[in-house]
Amino acid sequence: VQLQASGGGLVQPGGSLRLSCAASGSLFSINDMGWYRQAPGRQRELVATIASAGITNYADSVKGRFTISRDNAKNTVYLQMNSLKPEDTAVYYCNYKQYLLRWHEYWGQGTQVTVSS
After folding, report:
1. CB 116 within 8 A of CB 89
2. What are phi and psi of 88, to 5 degrees?
3. Cβ-count burial 84-112 (b if 16+ within 10 Å, e if not)
4. In this structure, what are the phi and psi dihedrals at residue 71, rounded to the nearest 5 degrees?
5. What DSSP string describes 2-53?
6. pLDDT tens per residue, range 79-109
């Protein structure tokens, strides 16, 4: 499985960005897609996930500001980030988990999001 993420960049506080991540390769129908982030000096943390059935999960810090969605036909997950804050600055990693006898997990290459004036 390969993951190709895009959409990071520099944005001012209060601005918006949209991240995309496309999965390719041997994909199975039972899967979760999501985003994690890692700021300098901090551990990687969950941002949001969405299951193939559409169930979503968000970190408390992004609830009401970020929206995760997916296009199953394109095997792509999106993260719409609104009302961005400087503390959202991090490298954002796409994550893909799929189930076949057990869970298999894959990571994208990471995309930098910087929120600064």
Report:
1. yes
2. -85, -5
3. beeebbbbbbbbbbbeeeeeeeeebebbe
4. -115, 105
5. EEEEE--EEE-TT--EEEEEEEESS--SSEEEEEEEE-TTS--EEEEEEETT
6. 999 999 999 999 999 999 999 899 999 999 9
